[in-house]
Amino acid sequence: MTDGVTVPQRIYRHRWPTRLWHWLNAVILLVMLMSGLMIFNAHPRLYWGQYGANADPAWLEVRSTTSNGYLRIGAAEVRTTGVLGHWRNDAGEVKRRAFPHWATIPSYYSLADGRRWHLFFAWVLALSMTAYMLWSLLAGHIRRDLHVSRSEWSPRHIWHDIKEHARLRFPTGEAAARYNVLQKLAYIGVIFVLLPLMVATGLAMSPGMNAAAPWLIDLFGGRQSARSIHFIATWALVGFFLVHMAMVLLAGPLNELRSMLTGWFTLPQAKDKAHG
Amino acid sequence: MADIILGRRALIGSVVSLPLLTGCDALNESPVFRKILSMGEVMHQHSQRTLMDRGALAREFDRSDLSPTFRANGSQMVEGPSYAAHVASGFRDWRVRVGGLVRNPLSLSMADIRTLPQRRQITRHDCVEGWSAIGAWQGARLGPILAAVQLLPAARYIVFRCADRIGGVPYYESVDLVDALHPQTILAWQLNDRTLPVANGAPLRLRVERHLGYKHAKFIESIEAVASLNGIGAGKGGFWEDRVDYEWYAGI
């Protein structure tokens, strides 16, 4: 990479709590997603409001006939045979559950087991998230790394960053030592919006919370609304994961991976310099 | 064409996730790992019991909030001529025995149940599967019944035994005294101002509002105070708890 003249500069980018929480989340969120899809399979319909059961109108539904599976969102319906609603398990048997065996924990239908996984890992998620939020605040992670400065908030600056990302041009040198504004917003969105929203909407579905904190259920517009928001926020997190993977691959997967394991990140050099 | 694309995607999905899934299924069946997972239930139970007001009432609704259709689930009929005869006679001879670790066992008729201290409540029924329905219930409060039979000091749990059978086994459920004595815990004989329909557990079902639907035993025949759940079924306190490992504490 280098010609011996320019020594690539290495910075200590991720402190250990960030690295630990990152990899913990990789496991937790995968387990939560897959066990959550198992729970969804028990009743693959979503509603708005306090109540919702089979006789009530669902805004999203996975349904099947003897030969096909369908996903309906509002009035739009697509055939999803092979993936949703109608698929074959490893033994080649046709199953008519919503999400297929390769997407759920366990791979065979068990609402009880899916709940066991989901409700245990929910604790790991909620406790580690709370600890990380506190650490981020107290250890200056928010102030130093995630705080969006006034100049960064300017539409021109954000638009510039969007264009640079769209052209797959990433910052080099000193500029790469800090998160850019889109990165900051994505990380803030996940840590302080999406993950707490998952925990809060999850709690809002608990019958115990219904007695202890009915305001939490009202906040989301009812228990079935909370369930719908829980589902939508899940796919927002999956969306974040996909963009995150794409960015890591484009920005230099080995350097990115090493920095999240050891903390040390090599500042990428401008292309013309590296080759010049 | 769409099928071919989806088929290929499913294939990729299964290749990518196969080792992971085999691992998760193996963990799912490991007794040690299941014990760890079950710590989640214990933590939910203790945190709810510690942090929440034990007398807090489940949210109650207005008539305008009622579900147009209250979905019936689980057993919706009891097989056999005996139950059919009870239905035919309007449950005139139905008796609910209240016994176990009590000083003064009772056998209650439906007429008795209707004259005991009552409560009406419009609550949301949350099924473990994910759906919810709002219904108006009326029934006899369990607390005064347990006061009348005088629980012995050793009594810790209340077990409900039911007439309905699933795979030949009569349904049963249990709650602890915190929930048994809770003001909203009632033996309901009315749903939406009408005599409880058979599909919803006629003549009598439990409402234990801070728990998921499978705790709400239907077709109740007897109520028993016990010191421990060890001797009940396989020891986990309920039909589904013993069979598929649903949580006994269903407040989450």
In short:
Chain A is of the alpha+beta class.
Arithmetic mean of pLDDT of chain B:
93
| N-to-C CA distance of chain A | 11 Å
What does the largest sheet of chain B look like?
Answer: 5 strands, mixed
SSE string of chain A: EHEEEEEEHHHHHHHHEH
DSSP strand count of chain A = 8
Q: Work out the radius of gyration of chain B.
A: 21 Å
Helix percentage of chain A = 55-70%
Number of helices of chain A: 10
Q: Give the end-to-end Cα distance of chain B, rounded to a whole number of Å.
A: 43 Å
Q: What is the topological layout?
A:
The complex is a heterodimer of chains A (276) and B (252).
Chain A: E1 10-12, H1 16-41, E2 45-46, E3 60-64, E4 69-73, E5 76-79, E6 87-88, E7 94-95, H2 111-138, H3 141-146, H4 155-166, H5 181-204, H6 207-212, H7 214-219, H8 223-251, H9 253-262, E8 264-266, H10 271-275
Antiparallel strand pairs in A: 1-8, 2-3, 3-4, 4-5, 6-7
Helix pairs in contact in A: 1-2, 2-5, 5-8, 8-9
Chain B: H1 2-29, H2 31-51, H3 81-88, E1 95-100, E2 106-109, H4 110-115, E3 118-126, E4 132-141, H5 142-149, E5 157-166, E6 169-176, H6 177-180, E7 186-191, E8 194-195, E9 205-207, E10 220-226, H7 239-244
Parallel strand pairs in B: 1-10
Antiparallel strand pairs in B: 1-2, 3-4, 4-7, 5-6, 5-10, 7-8, 7-9
List descriptors.
heterodimer, A: 276 residues, alpha+beta, 4-stranded antiparallel sheet, two-stranded antiparallel ribbon, 55% helix, globular, B: 252 residues, 5-stranded mixed sheet, 5-stranded antiparallel sheet, 7 helices
Structure, explained:
The complex is a heterodimer of chains A (about 280) and B (about 250). Chain A contains ten helices and eight strands. With about 280 residues, chain A is of the alpha+beta class. The termini of chain A are close together. The model of chain A has no long low-confidence stretch (mean pLDDT about 95). Chain B has about 250 residues and is of the alpha+beta class. In chain B, about 30% of the residues lie in helices and about 25% in strands. Chain B contains seven helices and ten strands. In chain B, strand 3 (about 120-125) and strand 4 (about 130-140) form a beta hairpin. The N and C termini of chain B lie far apart (about 45 Å). At the A-B interface, helix 1, helix 2, helix 6 and helix 8 of A face helix 1, helix 2 and strand 4 of B.
